[in-house]
Amino acid sequence: MLKLAEVNALLCTEVLCGQENMEREIVTACGADLMSDVLVYTKEKTLLLTGLTNIQVVRTAEVGDLMGIIFVRGKRPGPEVIEMAKAKSIPLMLTELSMFDACGILHDYGIRGCVERVPRNEL
Amino acid sequence: MTMEYGGVWNGCLEMNSRQVIQLEFFLEAGDFSTAGEASSQIKRILQQIGVKAETARRIAIGAYEAEMNVIIHSLGGKMRVAILPDRTDISVEDNGPGIADVKLAMQEGYSTAPDHIRDMGFGAGMGLPNMARCSDEFSITSEVGVGTKIRMVIHHP
Are B32 and B44 within 8 A, CB to CB? Predict the structure, then answer.
């Protein structure tokens, strides 16, 4: 379990909004650019790491009860995305790390994925 | 998207066993800026009346997938929601083009969404199966050239 403030220190993030919610704790994380998968596989108390910066990312975090969003690879969302996240109390952070490295660091510190395995599709 | 309140709900969010909150949302094709606003409002009401977080989450996810589907694929439609003390009942109806092979559309990974939808993180063929997964009762009927109807019922434990 990590507090968002600890995640920020580990990933050297810039906090875009939600500074007041940095005491939130996360247990699991999800690295994805596919919001449909996020909606299927995440649980609550989850942090989302993504390379997408559109408004649907904030919507997905809202309906899925996610604890916050980290944009990887230095991707910066537009002001309308930040405004919506503020209104919905969803913290947004930005890291210059790649998706792989950002997820790897959190994994090193005990954060795990939301699902261990998904049964393979049979065609 | 516009919303209308009807039924007996008068803005008081304490429900007794006979009350029902009815909501109606009009969904405009291609309106991605408000996509998800209906689900957001539904979720807020569920939280206010004390529906368990995990249940409210399932309902909001099902509603959001439905909203996205109508906005992505149809020519527009509407979502009607009835929140009762023991369940939430969501009906979604859209106008054309309909789904030729519903069974195929229900398969995970099957999608007809164009690239610009995939670039937004949707259109991966997970929407309909996810709606079914979130629901306790799920039904879909579709007619090519007319439209698609979906019903999701989620019980409040």
Answer: no
Domain of residue B37, CATH code: 3.30.565.10
Per-residue pLDDT of chain B (157 residues; tens, 9 = 90+): 445 544 334 444 556 666 899 999 999 999 998 899 999 999 999 999 999 999 999 999 999 999 999 999 999 999 999 999 999 999 999 998 999 999 999 998 899 998 989 988 898 899 999 999 999 999 999 999 999 999 999 999 9
Contact partners, residue A114, CB within 8 Å, separation at least 6: A28, A29, A30, A41, A42, A43, A46
CB B24 within 8 A of CB B79: yes
Q: B120 in contact with A at a CB cutoff of 8 Å?
A: yes
| Short-list A27, A3, A16, A2, CA closest to A95 | A16
Determine the Cα–Cα distance for residues A92 and A85; give it in Å rounded to an integer: 7
Residue A117 located in a structural domain: no
> Do the strands A25-26 and A28-31 form a parallel or antiparallel pair, or are they unpaired?
unpaired
d(CA A35, CA A56): 8
Outline where DSSP puts E strands in chain B: 2-7, 21-27, 77-83, 87-94, 137-143, 147-155
Contact B43 A88 (CB under 8 A): no
Cα end-to-end span (Å), chain A = 38
The number of domains in chain B is 1
Collect all residues with Cβ–Cβ distance below 8 Å to B135 and sequence separation of at least 6: B58, B62, B152, B153, B154
Contacts of residue A57 in chain B, CB cutoff 8 Å?
121
Q: Does residue A29 belong to any structural domain of this protein?
A: yes
- What distance in Å separates the CA atoms of residue B78 and residue B61, rounded to the nearest whole number? 17
Cβ distance A121 to B43 less than 8 Å, yes or no, reads no
